[in-house]
Design goal:
This protein has 136 residues and is an alpha+beta fold. The chain is built from six helices and four strands. The chain has a four-stranded mixed β-sheet, sandwiched between helices. It is globular.
Length: 136
């Protein structure tokens, strides 16, 4: 399941989200360093050549955050498209007290390339967002 594939979102919406991303919030990644939440923040950090704070979540923690409470699903899941979309606030409420680590955004982007989906070219989004950020 591709947690990030949102057919209804345009490239322009993704570019907007990168430009306006709040780098004070941590990203959330799997134990394999794949992005669960914070892709736009990671892209902005990459553009600005800044490291980014992140929290690694175990599979059990991911399931707790993304699955309904009464679910008996066991396995790997990043996001259920039938469920209401979670927010970073929810993840911070659940796991914000966990120790943050500092990541190089390039590493996180590389590890997450396969979760973006074929319809989303993350590097195209980065280049377009860079043009806007550079003008500011």
């Amino acid at each position: 399941m591709n947690w990030y594939k949102k057919a209804s979102r345009s490239i322009q919406e993704h570019i907007h989200d990168v430009v306006h991303a709040d780098l004070t919030k941590p990203i959330f990644v799997t134990e394999k360093l794949e992005i669960i939440d914070g892709a736009h923040r990671t892209c902005k950090a990459y553009i600005l050549k800044k490291n980014i704070k992140g929290i690694i979540l175990t599979q059990k923690e991911i399931n707790r955050a993304l699955l309904p409470e009464n679910s008996d699903y066991v396995g790997q899941i990043y996001r259920d498209d039938d469920k209401n979309e979670y927010s970073v606030t929810d993840l911070i409420d659940l796991y914000g007290s966990k120790k943050t680590l500092t990541f190089n955004p390039k590493t996180i982007l590389k590890q997450s390339e396969n979760v973006w989906g074929k319809e989303i070219n993350i590097y195209e989004i980065i280049e377009e967002a860079r043009k806007i950020i550079d003008k500011k």
